[in-house]
Amino acid sequence: MGKEPVRVLVTGAAGQIGYALVPMIARGVMLGSDQPIILHMLDIEPATEALNGVKMELVDAAFPLLMDVIATTDAMVACKGVNIAVMVGGFPRKEGMERKDVMSKNVSIYKAQASALEKQAAPDCKVLVVANPANTNALILKEFAPSIPEKNITCLTRLDHNRALGQLSERLKIHVGQVKNVIIWGNHSSTQYPDVNHATVTPTNSEEKPVRSVVADDNWLNTEFVTTVQQRGAAIIKARKLSSALSAASAACDHIRDWVLGTPKGTWVSMGVYSDGSYGIQSGIIYSFPVTCDKGQWSIFQGLKIDDFSREKMDATAKELVEEKTLAYSCLN
Ligand code: NAD
Ligand code: LMR
Predict the structure, then answer these.
(1) Are 324 and 134 in contact (CB under 8 A)?
(2) What's residue 333's pLDDT?
(3) Domain map (residue ranges) of the chain
């Protein structure tokens, strides 16, 4: 007998990430090619016609895994019974805007949607927040949906993780699949710290080696590499006049797939999760850590040695998250 369908919610489904993401989910990219899906799509009233257009295209694509599509502007309807919620809906950053400029618009959206999820979602629902400021939106969602286990609320830093892999692969002229175990620490913002100290490459016909020894240019790794990854979102906005969409959708699929189906042996990935104090990062913020996943649960990978250079950068991005938290609460009051 086939598997029971999984209900996947995508908020902001009429937007540009939504448009890239829903066909990936319906094709099995997120949960596997044998997993039937019921797609729940939420957007706001002004986007009703566009949302219906997306639904029409999903019907026209005749996806074998897609069992049903619910397209609505009612959050309570959209959240009903969902097993996975990908929260993309929100107000995106435009060229020249800082992430803090979009804070007040987004925290009130996340407070309202927290209560819809809490009332309507399946008890084991896994939540991924994509919309910016992603870490702080996820924190607000966690605070206002106290009955959802805190381990079930995460934010997307996998795009940054993939960007770091991509930069190393370009630099070394090797396939991206030959690089692994970079880490994104902290906030999905320009203070994030892409760390290569534990990353490895497996050159063709050779053994796995530390990235630092193969790149052999610490200056590049500590400066240009870090800023390129930190600023990549802004560079995409400058080039496209729109924020990243296909890479964000793909990273959202990677995040959920690894969380649900597990990370490959010997590999960790980056996820924004509620800090438990690991690596000296204070509790009370959603911070990106290296995680491994097994049987639908993530765990922070422990025991990595942190040098002074990394410590400073990890603390700086934590400090920004504490400031964002204060700002978010001041917007809600
Ligand atoms: P977009 O403007 O194209 O789409 C956003 C959609 O959300 C729109 O259709 C809008 O109508 C809808 N929306 C607004 N308020 C809503 C609400 N209350 N409920 C449901 N839907 C609502 O934006 P986009 O380019 O798709 O980006 C979406 C978000 O993702 C932005 O916040 C962007 O900054 C963020 N983003 C995050 C990452 C990441 O790696 N974490 C990467 C790229 C983009
Ligand atoms: C990205 O990393 O591409 C986006 O988060 C950029 C943005 O601010 O929307």
Answers:
(1) no
(2) 77
(3) 6-155, 157-331
pLDDT band at 305 (very low <50, low <70, confident <90, very high): very high
Active site annotation includes 188? yes
* Residue numbers belonging to the annotated binding site: 12-18, 43, 93, 99, 106, 130-132, 163
Contacts of residue 287, Cβ cutoff 8 Å, sequence gap at least 6: 135, 185, 186, 187, 272, 273, 275, 281, 317, 318, 321
Whose tokens are 């990370």? That residue is 263
Is 141 within 8 Å of 110 (Cβ atoms)?
yes
Measured from CB, residues less than 6 Å from any atom of ligand 1 are 11-12, 14-18, 42-44, 47, 88-90, 92-93, 109, 130-132, 134, 156, 159, 188, 243-245, 248
Distance 16 CA to ligand 1 centre (A): 8
pLDDT at 44 over 90: yes
- Quick check: 288 pLDDT over 70? yes
ipTM over 0.90: yes
In the predicted model, is pLDDT for residue 94 greater than 70? no
- At the topology level, CATH places domain 6-155 in Rossmann fold (3.40.50)
CATH of 157-331, one of 3.20.20.80, 3.50.20.10, 3.40.470.10, 3.90.110.10: 3.90.110.10
Which tokens go with 132? 């910016």
| Tokens linked to 198 | 């534990």
